[in-house]
Amino acid sequence: TLRTVAGSALFFLLAFSAIYGVCILAMILTGRLLTGLLTGIFFLGYGPTCFYLISSLILEKFVTYSSYTDRGGNVIWLLSPFSLMWLRSDRLSSLFGALLPDRVHSLLLPGLFLTGYFIFSVILGLLLYRRRRSEAAENSLCYHGFGACVKLLVSVPGGIAFGALLSRSTDSSSVSWVVFSVIGVFLINGIIEFIYSRDLKSIPRHWVSLAAEYAGTALLLALMIVNPFGYDSWLPETDQILSMSMIPCSDGIRILGEYSYWDMSQNAIPMLKKTETGDFMSIYTLAEEGVKNAEQAGETEYVPNICVMFHMKNGGVVYRQYQVSDMALRR
Questions:
Q1: Element (DSSP H or E) covering residue 84
Q2: What do you get for the CA distance between the two ends of the chain, in Å?
Q3: Which tens digit of pLDDT belongs to each residue from 111-136?
Q4: Which residue, 83, 79, 90, is CA-closest to 266?
């Protein structure tokens, strides 16, 4: 219909305007055409890329993390005007839940976020332009402090991803991950320094920003490797639990024809709530075995086959996935 065509046209006009506004903001910040273009691509892809990196590392390092029941993955669609163009309204609805009406036009909510990106980029771009006109810049950065921020935001996740990739191709140990991450941060820092100043001799002069990059990298690696919060060993006492439920979760991985990952991720929470019970000791016993197996995950292969929901007496709901023996499941 004409209304559908008009709505689609307006949506893609908003998407183009938001992407264009972000690119113009990048040009004003950098003052050079090529550098501004690279910064614009960086702005558009940074949020989804970092979120994907974090999600991948969480899945790899925390073996009891349940991806089937995670709704935070929908956030990735909101982190860039580019990804919003492909946003499905049901994913955004699941992100906000009951805050949204039951029937919302498939383009309305993404369009509102695109409008917000466009207005933000235009207002910030005008403020920056009036404060220091880009034509007056004599180097590639109109705002010198912005370069240190870019190096920090790119080098830390980029170095960790570089280290994880090379570590998997060698012995997959924590030591190799740390070593390759240190090398990755230094290489990415050098590339950015060359893009901005075209002089690698500036690296020693900017040792403070390099030290900040290594500090951020060390903090994130410590959270992933040392696991100070004991995520995989978490198991509440029985008197803290109101009810529990359990469903098998391996079919979504092994039997692609029966369940796709998307089907499992959409149906896992309703299935768990449907089977919730206050007589949960048998499920709790399975969870205890799963925690013990998770503590030995570094020594043996860990393949989760059940998904468990803990409904706490304080109102909280916690989801975990565990690997348990077939004998325990048949009890």
A1: helix 81-84
A2: 58
A3: 788 888 899 988 988 887 777 654 54
A4: 90
